[in-house]
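B., you asked whether I could sanity-check this one before it goes into the benchmark set. Here's the sequence:
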Amino acid sequence: MKGSRALIMLLLSLVAGIAAMVLAARWLNEQSLAKTESHVVVAARDIELGQPLNASMVTLVPWPAGSVPAGSFAKAEGVDGRVVRTQLLRGEPVLEAKLAPVGTKGGLSAVIGQGRRAITVKVNEVVGVAGFALPGNYVDVLVNTQDERDRPVSKIVLERILVLAVAQEASRDDTKPRVVNAVTLEVTPEEAERIDLARSVGNLSLVLRNQIDVNQAQTDGIRKADLLGDTPPPAPPVAAAPAPAEPRPAARRVVRRAPPPVAAAPKDDARVEVIRGVQRSSTDL
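And here's what the prediction gave me:
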C-alpha cells in the first residue's frame, strides 16, 4: 500500500515537473519573441497612386525586428493624410519613399517628381502605339516636319519620357492596351518647351521603349532621300575662272619724219630749136 502511494506521488511529481518545464519554455519563447518582434504599417487593401491614406486603409502587422524595411512606419498615425506616389498592394509595407511630401494634396500632381512637369499630348491609335503607352511606361517622342530647306524630315526629339496617365487614368497595374485621345507625360521644363514647339511645327508620334533601356539613340533624323535611297544629282561643274590677261606693252608712238629735201639738179641752159623745112636754128633762152 505504501509502495503504490509512493509510486503515484512520483508520477504526479514527474507530470508536474514536465508541465512546469513546458510552461517555462513557452514563457521564455514569448519573451524572446516580444524582444525581437516589431510592428510595421502595411496596406489593408490595394491603394491606387494619388490617393491620401487614412486609418481604414492601413493596418499594423508583426515584423521581425532584424528585417524591418527602411523607411517603414510603426504607427498608423504616421501615415494619416499622406498621399501615395505609387500603387500599393494589400499587405505591402507603407514606406516613406512611396509617399508624397507632407502637405501634398491628392491627385496626379502628387506623383509628379520634384522639378518636373506634366504635359498632355493629343494622340490617336497610331500615335499612341495602339494603346500600349500605359502609365508607368517609357516612350520616345518623334516629330515629322520640314527642315530648313523645306524637305520632309522625321527626328526623335525626346527620349525615355515617363507616361503619367492615359486619358484620366493613372493606374499602373493595367497591362491591357487602351486606345485613348490624350497621354500625359512627365517632363522637365525644357522638355515641355520642346514638345510644345514640336507639335506646332509638325506631327508627333510616340515610340514605346523597354522600361530598363537607358541608352540614348544618337540619330540625325531621316529624310526622303534617305528613305528612298536616292542619291542627290551631281553638282554642276564649276567653270574655271579665266586667267588674268598679261599686261600688253604700251604702244610705241612712231614719229615719221619728212625725208630730207633733195637738192634740185642744176638746170642746163634752155634752148629753143626751130626747124623750118631742111633748116634748123636754135636760140638760147
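One thing to flag: Residues 112-228 form one domain. Otherwise nothing jumped out at me.
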